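Support request, please re-run this one:
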Amino acid sequence: MLRTLLALLALAFACPAAAQPLTAAESAAIDALVGKTLAETQVPSASIAIVRSGEIVLTKAYGKASAAIPAARPDLPYQIASNSKQFTAMALLLLEDEGKLDLDDKVAKYFPEISGADRIAVRQLLNHTSGLQDYWPHDYSFPAMARPTTPQGILDIWAKKPLDFEPGTQFQYSNTAYVVAGLIVEKVSGEPLLAFLKRRIFDPLGMTSVKDIDLTNGPAFPHGFERYALGPVRQVTPPAAGWLYAAGELSMSAGDMAKWNIARLNRSLVPNEDWETQETTTKLVDGSDTGAGLGVFVAKPKGRRVVSHTGESVGFLSANSVYPDERAAITVLTNSWSASAFSEISRGIAKIVLPPPPEDVATAAATAKIRRVYDQLRSGTLDRRLLTPNAKYYFTPVVLAD
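Re-run finished. Output below.
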């Protein structure tokens, strides 16, 4: 009997844990969370994907995708905007693997006409320390977005302005830097950025929904919405073509984003070193840590490590969070840029499907002990083994009786 039990235990520890499907209670809690959040924020729809134990356990859509699509579907590609940056960064890492470039190359090797090109490393384009002025720091459209542009057009106007700071001395989010990064991918690989990503990442992972963001501004796709203060919800006017490119040019379903998250969790598709490099945070010249990797941010709130990014395009907001230690990931895509539903839903789902973070576990244990002592005091049956020496001295029989 003992030998059998030991053998079973050894087998259990040798095998990877199977994915834990959502319980009925978890599914109901998620439905209630999303429904309540959409109703309160007036966001028309949300599409979500949840990975647990390295497998997709839920893809689901809620609400109205557009006037032409009254019921959102999980297969629909939503605009993920700046969540695209992690793919642009990985493209450059793959090209480095092939020996076609070095992330420590100066940008001048590829685009010498850019301001500070002889001082900006390619890596600094990806970790937002280049000093290149951001062409879209706004949370709204600006006049030029009504007219089509090209990556070169963005480069000519914004990447040739004086640097905002010396490379490596500050962190400043820069879409401009990612446009330059995408152009480097194309120059070095000899093919369009989206074609390169399709060949090296999307096709191998079976990410069949991925499309250029400019091609998803039509009746067959979710439409973006906006709301001013407590006014009515209105459809947005999409920008003209060309404005996001390598800084945010992708649309995809939440389920396809989950496939990429699983590759990250499994350290598959690309060399492990590439994943590690992407997730290594950047230190400035003064030694301070920015929390930014290459196309992702890495943090440890409440002791739980999370690799994440968000995305904003005209009428869309998204959040993608990967929890390596829990082998879990949560993707939330929404079609409004006027409310925080995307982040509220993401945080809410994490509380439902993930175990409490390490600090919360310790706090819960301490709270349970305090509650136990308190309840014992109320009943006059104090377990003195739970007390410090000073507390034992204080709680005499007389004190307890009183």
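The chain has two domains: 27-353, 363-401. The CA atoms of residues 138 and 211 lie 24 Å apart.
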